């Protein structure tokens, strides 16, 4: 078995070597795991270099200190597997060489998502999660604190550059914007520019995607110590090694940072060894591994002392995964017929035989649960979140503040336990634009990321009740926004009611005027024998008074909350009643004209003189209006509706006329009857002065036409309940004009000047 690592970097990486040797020692001393088999090893130092990684892989295949391509010079034992590398890029370089021979490779730190492709990497395994689960953990952290404006700094090695680009795509797909994504090489000028970019960025949160070698270049580069007020979120690939940081100023920019690390695992007895062996004596650790240290009295130390490790634990489990897979393979081989001895079987052993056993390997660990590889040859996504706290005296500590588990998905963080560092006393904001308060919405800025926006007030009739809403919501039709437009209020329902002073006044006027019409009708009936009543066509006068009374009363249908029946019949009732009134007036005018034009014995008009002509006129003209109303009711009947556009914050209950065209046809028909009446009455205006019926009709039609001509612009310019009031005014005004102009003079003759109502006065003749 071969182990690839970086020996020269730090004590922490040397601890990986210690864990490897410690696991080998435990396995070889375990009589139940690999009986009669000793697990050997080779150790190769790659120093982060991809070229050295390839060179080490070739040496492992050759079995000597020198590279001999296509030759196997192993003198003792055979190669079972390669453990390593920590980083993805060297692991990829190694896999490119050894995958041709299908030699199992178990990395304890490579998280590149491409290694999950079992067709491309069938012999690659890892004791750490896939990078994609780490990306999801970062996204959950950013979403938890509402950080939607971040920067990404990645090292120029292939693995971190590719993973950071993939992270950028995933951040954008989750609505998190990236201010900048810089990939820097190990170059003094580039590290300086990168530090200046971090320092001057508007993003508070910076995601570091690099290994320790690249990161140290940033920390010793120019302008690093000037970076303030930033929260660094580090990837698992970056393990901060504090012994490499030499002064407080270099370390302080990391104050308040959040670090993702792999899960912890216990290795019993590992801490005893680490405490016993001085850091400077690491080169001699191999000779000390095969007997645990003893105390001052010579008693061996027990293995009860358990210390949690992270990447060190990944190295430890990688070695045990090889041992258990080999154990399963040997156990099955011993059960096969023809098995002679372990030694003979080992002579025919090939590394590729380990792969199916590694795929199915499962064994209990010193931590909770069993160890096993997923179908992709990796571990489930489990990460802890550490908070880096740097005190003013230069001391630093790491505090565990949260965790993430991918199966099942769980994210937990203790906000109160996080120390954010100066100048923050609570979680800082990292946004491109300030939050849009309720009552406004986000409007994207052209040419900028989605997270950069302006706050635009909600339009009329819309509200937003949360911060940073992408759109405003329309209020229900019966509601209206308040002044701040952050919630909907109930609209004030309004209609022309009897409780309204205007409605009560119009209703009272309607009843009063109809009472006047009925009173006049009563007087005419009482004095029906008088010449004044008989001279003005008694039956037509009765019909006219009744129709005017109905016209007045039809106004009551326009007042009150609109109901389906009232909406349907009110215009028809007014139109029919008024058409009968105008037909009666037209009949009066035509009767007068015919009567005075047919005085000659040979006149053709004499056959029209009599009571039949007025009846024909009234019935014929009324039937025309009835046809219009019937068509209206059938084709597009009026119905109750509401108006929310006329007045803000109000819902005005109205009757929708169904067809505005038919409404104007009805009114136009009344206008035509009025014009005919006016024309006929005007033509006979020069009758004897004592017979003033034609003049009264002429004047009443002038009043009628004046009222309805002024009604149209008034109706169109009025809104809400006042539209109804305007129509009622027109009905009452025109009806009152007819009643006053035609019947008031006659009432004066009948009631006040009875002498003038005699036959002599009416006809202008005496009996002498």
From TrEMBL:
<feature type="transmembrane region" description="Helical">
    <location>
        <begin position="572"/>
        <end position="595"/>
    </location>
</feature>
<dbReference type="InterPro" id="IPR004073">
    <property type="entry name" value="GPCR_3_vmron_rcpt_2"/>
</dbReference>
<keyword id="KW-1133">Transmembrane helix</keyword>
<protein>
    <submittedName>
        <fullName>Vomeronasal type-2 receptor 26-like</fullName>
    </submittedName>
</protein>
<dbReference type="InterPro" id="IPR011500">
    <property type="entry name" value="GPCR_3_9-Cys_dom"/>
</dbReference>
<dbReference type="InterPro" id="IPR017979">
    <property type="entry name" value="GPCR_3_CS"/>
</dbReference>
<feature type="transmembrane region" description="Helical">
    <location>
        <begin position="696"/>
        <end position="716"/>
    </location>
</feature>
<keyword id="KW-0732">Signal</keyword>
<dbReference type="GO" id="GO:0004930">
    <property type="term" value="F:G protein-coupled receptor activity"/>
</dbReference>
<keyword id="KW-1003">Cell membrane</keyword>
<dbReference type="Pfam" id="PF07562">
    <property type="entry name" value="NCD3G"/>
</dbReference>
<keyword id="KW-0675">Receptor</keyword>
<feature type="transmembrane region" description="Helical">
    <location>
        <begin position="539"/>
        <end position="560"/>
    </location>
</feature>
<feature type="transmembrane region" description="Helical">
    <location>
        <begin position="722"/>
        <end position="744"/>
    </location>
</feature>
<comment type="similarity">
    <text>Belongs to the G-protein coupled receptor 3 family.</text>
</comment>
<feature type="transmembrane region" description="Helical">
    <location>
        <begin position="661"/>
        <end position="684"/>
    </location>
</feature>
<dbReference type="InterPro" id="IPR000337">
    <property type="entry name" value="GPCR_3"/>
</dbReference>
<dbReference type="InterPro" id="IPR017978">
    <property type="entry name" value="GPCR_3_C"/>
</dbReference>
<dbReference type="InterPro" id="IPR028082">
    <property type="entry name" value="Peripla_BP_I"/>
</dbReference>
<keyword id="KW-0472">Membrane</keyword>
<dbReference type="Pfam" id="PF01094">
    <property type="entry name" value="ANF_receptor"/>
</dbReference>
<dbReference type="Pfam" id="PF00003">
    <property type="entry name" value="7tm_3"/>
</dbReference>
<dbReference type="InterPro" id="IPR001828">
    <property type="entry name" value="ANF_lig-bd_rcpt"/>
</dbReference>
<keyword id="KW-0297">G-protein coupled receptor</keyword>
<keyword id="KW-0812">Transmembrane</keyword>
<dbReference type="GO" id="GO:0005886">
    <property type="term" value="C:plasma membrane"/>
</dbReference>
<keyword id="KW-0325">Glycoprotein</keyword>
<keyword id="KW-0807">Transducer</keyword>
<feature type="domain" description="G-protein coupled receptors family 3 profile">
    <location>
        <begin position="502"/>
        <end position="753"/>
    </location>
</feature>
<dbReference type="InterPro" id="IPR038550">
    <property type="entry name" value="GPCR_3_9-Cys_sf"/>
</dbReference>
<feature type="transmembrane region" description="Helical">
    <location>
        <begin position="615"/>
        <end position="635"/>
    </location>
</feature>
<dbReference type="InterPro" id="IPR000068">
    <property type="entry name" value="GPCR_3_Ca_sens_rcpt-rel"/>
</dbReference>
<feature type="transmembrane region" description="Helical">
    <location>
        <begin position="502"/>
        <end position="527"/>
    </location>
</feature>
